Amino acid sequence: xxxxHKGLLNGATMIGMFSGSFIWGYISDSRGRxxxxxxxxxxxxxxxxxxxxxxxxxxxxxxxxxSGFGVSGATVLYSYLGEFVNTKYRExxxxxxxxxxxxxxxxxxxxxxxxxxxxxxxxxxFFLFRSxxxxxxxxxxxxxxxxxxxxxxxxxxxxxxxxxxxxxxxECLKFVHRWNNNTDVKFPVTSIVAPDYVQELNKGFLVxxxxxxxxxxxxxxxxxxxxxxxxxxxxxxxxxMLMLWFPELMNRFLxxxxxxxGFPNMTTMCDIVSLYxxxxxxxxxxxxxxxxxxxxxxxxxxxxxxxxTSLIVPLxxxxxxxxxxxxxxxxxxxxxxxCLYVITSSHSNLMLSAVFESLSSAGISLMYCIAVELFPxxxxxxxxxxxxxxxxIGALLGNVVVGVFIDEYCTVPIVVACSFLIISxxxxxxxxxxxxxxxx
Length: 440
Prior knowledge:
Elements: H1 3-30, H2 33-52, H3 57-71, H4 76-82, H5 87-95, H6 97-115, E1 122-124, E2 127-129, H7 131-150, H8 157-162, H9 166-181, H10 205-218, H11 222-243, H12 246-259, H13 269-275, H14 293-305, H15 307-320, H16 322-338, H17 346-374, H18 377-405, H19 411-428
Antiparallel strand pairs: 1-2
Helix pairs in contact: 1-2, 1-3, 1-10, 1-18, 2-3, 2-4, 2-7, 5-15, 5-17, 6-7, 6-14, 11-17, 11-18, 11-19, 12-17, 14-17, 15-16, 16-17, 16-19, 17-18
Keywords: Membrane, Transmembrane, Transmembrane helix, Transport
Family: Belongs to the major facilitator superfamily.
Membrane topology: Multi-pass membrane protein
């Protein structure tokens, strides 16, 4: 594949995530959190499996598009988990989700390091299967396993209660009681007394999606919804803009340091970027699939750099609050983005990318947590997913900005990323306080 082909492949995934984020939020609020999670994970895993045996580029594009559509439903997990945990511990439990993201960042390159260098080649007619195909199969397994595990779990009790399904709510609470107490002792609650709920009429999918969206932005929570969407847009734009740029910067620094070895390295990052000329790929029918080991190592290092924030945030979030950590993450990552302008070596680039990844990814994760806290059950799934949708729009914009300006005007992506993160940090303090910190 040429660079254009690779760009389209990444773009297909982003477009799928953009469209899916919006739709899965409505499905989770209308049909259920568990329902949305099971089907989104099955779609992601199934199309990942299909892409692993794809032999035609358009098929691969379609598979990545549908995989992005499916995996975008993973944001519903925040609503699902948050509605099983009481208010006192909800912030802490949701913040622990970042640790699992960090573990994934570490495990993924380690698996790739084991699988991708393998040189086996299975051919049968036009069918070709190599190490990257096997790695794609392995990457599909978590989504499929999660989908089948969720089939054994109950629906969110708060969702069932909000829909007036009191008998099903009792059954869900019985399940939780049995597992929490590891006993078959009879659940003491036999009925639920609650206000009457409004019977929902059967609506078409598009009508329901439209009314659910309008309902959120005309409710008393419209201000909070608008602010969270702006923050998601700004922070995710900056995140994808720089995290997709760091490997390219590393490449160009290594090129410069190898070419000018022995000379004092006083050249700034923007000077090196302008010196490096990207020539069109030579298409000779062969696939150069050699990956330097430093690529795997650098991603592992970045993953381990995320561990401190993944541990500190959940341990202290009940004392300091989500807003405090959101401010630290966005302002800190904004400063690290600004420092790109003055770095002069590949080591500095690696250090900044580690700091930026740990703070910005934690900030984006915390935005999902705070959305669960700020919105009631009937709006929660849609609010979380619409915020994610604005984030994916930002991700696409970030790709465009880097592609257009990286060679000739490299200060533009730096200024945009830094400004957006500072704006996100400031907007955080306009949101209402959440959790037990707001009741002190």
